[in-house]
Design brief:
The protein is mainly alpha-helical. The chain has a domain of 83 residues: Glycoprotein, Type 4 Pilin (2-Layer Sandwich). It has two helices and three strands; from the N terminus they run H-H-E-E-E. Strands 1-2-3 form a three-stranded antiparallel sheet, covered by helices on one side. The N and C termini lie far apart (84 Å).
Length: 135
């Protein structure tokens, strides 16, 4: 009685990826990466603006509470720490807000961020009196 064994040559050969298939995968990955980068670019600045508006709302509430209790506005934001806010607030770009009391435009105070360029003026400043447009 003889036992027959299958030889290696009788198995179906494993097929490797062709150069065309590999190039197609690389192209598809490149297209997906491009779409992801384009869709995510610019969203970082919008997120920082949103964080700045949120911080300014917190600052404004703290200033109003300070005014109700002391019948005056704080001379600086550091007067609000630690009773009204836990630490001196920063904008979305990790810079301290600029606080002025009284404001040159006739308001009792103004608090603003210099925006993404870090310079006063330039059109990207965000004031406590600006409305969040949701951009």
């Amino acid at each position: 009685m003889t036992v027959q064994t299958k030889s290696r040559s009788s198995r179906p050969a494993r097929r490797a990826f062709t150069l065309l298939e590999m190039m197609l995968v690389v192209v598809i990955m490149g297209v997906l990466a491009t779409v992801a980068v384009v869709s995510l670019s610019g969203r970082g600045d919008a997120a920082k603006r949103g964080a700045t508006f949120a911080s300014l709302n917190t600052v404004q509430s703290s200033i109003q509470q300070f005014h109700l209790e002391k019948n005056r506005y704080p001379s600086s934001l550091s007067e609000l720490v630690p009773k009204y806010i836990s630490k001196t607030p920063k904008d979305g770009w990790k810079r301290e807000f600029i606080y002025v009391s009284p404001s040159p435009d006739g308001r009792p105070y103004d608090c603003y961020s210099m925006g993404s360029d870090g310079q006063i003026g330039g059109g990207d400043d965000i004031s406590i009196w600006d409305e969040d447009t949701g951009d």
